[in-house]
Amino acid sequence: MDIRIHPSPLSGTVSAVPSKSDAHRLLICAALSHEPTSIFIGGLNEDILATMGCLRNMGAMIEKSPDDENIWMVSPVWDCIQDSPVLNCLESGSTLRFLLPVVASICKTPLLTGAGRLPDRPIFPLQEQMEAHGCGFSAPKLPFTLQGILKSGLYELRGDISSQFFSGLLFALPLLDGDSEIRILSSLESSAYIDMTVNALSKFGIRIDRFSGGYRICGGQLYQSPGFVRTEGDWSGASFFLTAGAIGKPVSLTGLSLKSVQPDRSIISLLQRFGAEVQMTHEKIDVFPGTFNGIDMDASEYPDIIPILAIVACRANGETIIRNALRLKLKESDRLTAISDCITQLGGKVRLTSDGMVIAGNGCLNGGEVDGFFDHRIVMSAAIASILCKTQVIIHGAEAVRKSYPNFFADFRKLGGKYDVL
Ligand SMILES: O=C(O)C1=C[C@@H](OP(=O)(O)O)[C@@H](O)[C@H](O)C1
Ligand SMILES: C=C(OP(=O)(O)O)C(=O)O
C-alpha cells in the first residue's frame, strides 16, 4: 500500500495503543501459569497475534472474553501441552527470542518458523548457549526444529546484540530442574527491556536475582497467575504522535503510565533536550513545540525511538549526533540505512558514522518519495516527517504499520493528517 500525505501539522488528542512488549510478556507468563489469567489488551497487532498463535500451538487456550472484547482469557499450556508444536513467529523478534528457550524447556521437537527479515536477524549467541545446554537446532536459521530439553546451568551471553536473548532465558530457566546463572559478557544494552521482563515475571510470582555481572535464577519455580493483568499503553507507538506535538502543533496522549519501565518513555526527556515543552499528569501528556537545537545522544538504551528522533533532528538547528546505534541494523530493516535514506529523499542532510549518524538540521524538509523498507517504525517516522515538508510525501509499503500499530493512519487522520491511498 502506497500513501500520499499532504503536509499539515497534527493537533488534538489520541490514546496510546497497547504495548506489544508488555503484551508478549504477560501472555507468556499467563500461558506458563497453573491457573487461568485474564489479560486486558486494548487492541491487537501482528506481533501480539504471533505470540498468541505460538502459545496456542504449544497448548494454551487464548479466547476473547464474552463480556469484554479487550479481555483475553488464557488457560495454561500445561492442560494440553504439545510435543511437536509449530511456532510461526511471523516477523516478531520478541516472539522468536522469548519463546525459543521456553519451548525448548517444555516441548520435545518444536518447529519454529518466521517471515520477512526475521530468519536473518541474529540468534547465534542464544543458539550457542542452548546447544551447550542440551538443545539441538536442525539448521542455523529459521525454519528449524529443536531436539532435546534445555538444561539448567551457567549461561554466558554478550549483552550488546539483543536483550531479547536474556528475556527468553529468564522466562525459561525458572521452569527447569536445578538453578541457573546468566553471565553478561560485554556491555548490556536495552537493559530496561530486561527490567520489563523481571517486572512481568514478578507479577506471576517468579523471582530473579540481579547481581552486577548477570542474573541468578532458582529452578523449579511455579508461575502463579495473579488472576487479572492489564497491558500498559505503548510508549514506543506514542513517540510518533508525541513528536508530532513537538515539531508541529500541540498534541496530547492519554493512556500512558508515568511509572512504566518501558525504555521508550525516554522520548519525553529527549524531546525536552531538543527544546520541546512537555506537561505531564496521570491523565495525559501534552507536548508543545519549542526552539529546537541539535543534541548528542546515546542510542543503546532505546533503539526503537531512534528513527523518529532522527526526524526531530531535522527540525532542530545545528547537528544532532546519534552514537552507539549499530544494533539498529538488526531490526525489521537496517534502520540506520533506512532512516538516513528517508531523510535524504525528503531533502534533509544526514551522514552515517562508524556507530550511528549525524543529522544537520535546518528546520524543515522538502518532501518526496520514500521507501518504507517493510518496517513499521520507518513508515511511521516518514509520516510524521511530512509535518516538516513543503510538498507531498509518498510512502511505499505503508501497510508495515500493522506489526505494532495497525490503526496508525486512522489516528494520524484523527489528528488532522491528510492522506490518500494510491
Ligand atoms: O524486549 C523487547 O520487548 C524489545 C527489545 C528491543 O530489542 P533488542 O534488545 O534486540 O534491542 C526492542 O528493539 C524491541 O522492539 C522490543
Ligand atoms: C524491533 C522491534 O520488534 P521485534 O524485535 O520484536 O521484532 C520493533 O518493534 O521495533
From TrEMBL:
<dbReference type="GO" id="GO:0009073">
    <property type="term" value="P:aromatic amino acid family biosynthetic process"/>
</dbReference>
<feature type="binding site">
    <location>
        <position position="190"/>
    </location>
    <ligand>
        <name>3-phosphoshikimate</name>
    </ligand>
</feature>
<feature type="binding site">
    <location>
        <position position="164"/>
    </location>
    <ligand>
        <name>phosphoenolpyruvate</name>
    </ligand>
</feature>
<feature type="domain" description="Enolpyruvate transferase">
    <location>
        <begin position="7"/>
        <end position="410"/>
    </location>
</feature>
<comment type="similarity">
    <text>Belongs to the EPSP synthase family.</text>
</comment>
<feature type="binding site">
    <location>
        <position position="164"/>
    </location>
    <ligand>
        <name>3-phosphoshikimate</name>
    </ligand>
</feature>
<dbReference type="GO" id="GO:0009423">
    <property type="term" value="P:chorismate biosynthetic process"/>
</dbReference>
<dbReference type="GO" id="GO:0003866">
    <property type="term" value="F:3-phosphoshikimate 1-carboxyvinyltransferase activity"/>
</dbReference>
<comment type="function">
    <text>Catalyzes the transfer of the enolpyruvyl moiety of phosphoenolpyruvate (PEP) to the 5-hydroxyl of shikimate-3-phosphate (S3P) to produce enolpyruvyl shikimate-3-phosphate and inorganic phosphate.</text>
</comment>
<feature type="binding site">
    <location>
        <position position="25"/>
    </location>
    <ligand>
        <name>3-phosphoshikimate</name>
    </ligand>
</feature>
<feature type="binding site">
    <location>
        <position position="377"/>
    </location>
    <ligand>
        <name>phosphoenolpyruvate</name>
    </ligand>
</feature>
<dbReference type="Pfam" id="PF00275">
    <property type="entry name" value="EPSP_synthase"/>
</dbReference>
<keyword id="KW-0963">Cytoplasm</keyword>
<feature type="binding site">
    <location>
        <position position="20"/>
    </location>
    <ligand>
        <name>phosphoenolpyruvate</name>
    </ligand>
</feature>
<dbReference type="InterPro" id="IPR013792">
    <property type="entry name" value="RNA3'P_cycl/enolpyr_Trfase_a/b"/>
</dbReference>
<feature type="binding site">
    <location>
        <position position="163"/>
    </location>
    <ligand>
        <name>3-phosphoshikimate</name>
    </ligand>
</feature>
<feature type="binding site">
    <location>
        <position position="162"/>
    </location>
    <ligand>
        <name>3-phosphoshikimate</name>
    </ligand>
</feature>
<dbReference type="InterPro" id="IPR036968">
    <property type="entry name" value="Enolpyruvate_Tfrase_sf"/>
</dbReference>
<feature type="binding site">
    <location>
        <position position="121"/>
    </location>
    <ligand>
        <name>phosphoenolpyruvate</name>
    </ligand>
</feature>
<keyword id="KW-0057">Aromatic amino acid biosynthesis</keyword>
<feature type="active site" description="Proton acceptor">
    <location>
        <position position="304"/>
    </location>
</feature>
<feature type="binding site">
    <location>
        <position position="20"/>
    </location>
    <ligand>
        <name>3-phosphoshikimate</name>
    </ligand>
</feature>
<feature type="binding site">
    <location>
        <position position="21"/>
    </location>
    <ligand>
        <name>3-phosphoshikimate</name>
    </ligand>
</feature>
<comment type="pathway">
    <text>Metabolic intermediate biosynthesis; chorismate biosynthesis; chorismate from D-erythrose 4-phosphate and phosphoenolpyruvate: step 6/7.</text>
</comment>
<protein>
    <recommendedName>
        <fullName>3-phosphoshikimate 1-carboxyvinyltransferase</fullName>
        <ecNumber>2.5.1.19</ecNumber>
    </recommendedName>
</protein>
<dbReference type="InterPro" id="IPR001986">
    <property type="entry name" value="Enolpyruvate_Tfrase_dom"/>
</dbReference>
<dbReference type="GO" id="GO:0005737">
    <property type="term" value="C:cytoplasm"/>
</dbReference>
<comment type="subunit">
    <text>Monomer.</text>
</comment>
<keyword id="KW-0028">Amino-acid biosynthesis</keyword>
<dbReference type="InterPro" id="IPR023193">
    <property type="entry name" value="EPSP_synthase_CS"/>
</dbReference>
<feature type="binding site">
    <location>
        <position position="335"/>
    </location>
    <ligand>
        <name>phosphoenolpyruvate</name>
    </ligand>
</feature>
<feature type="binding site">
    <location>
        <position position="403"/>
    </location>
    <ligand>
        <name>phosphoenolpyruvate</name>
    </ligand>
</feature>
<feature type="binding site">
    <location>
        <position position="93"/>
    </location>
    <ligand>
        <name>phosphoenolpyruvate</name>
    </ligand>
</feature>
<feature type="binding site">
    <location>
        <position position="304"/>
    </location>
    <ligand>
        <name>3-phosphoshikimate</name>
    </ligand>
</feature>
<feature type="binding site">
    <location>
        <position position="331"/>
    </location>
    <ligand>
        <name>3-phosphoshikimate</name>
    </ligand>
</feature>
<dbReference type="InterPro" id="IPR006264">
    <property type="entry name" value="EPSP_synthase"/>
</dbReference>
<dbReference type="GO" id="GO:0008652">
    <property type="term" value="P:amino acid biosynthetic process"/>
</dbReference>
<keyword id="KW-0808">Transferase</keyword>
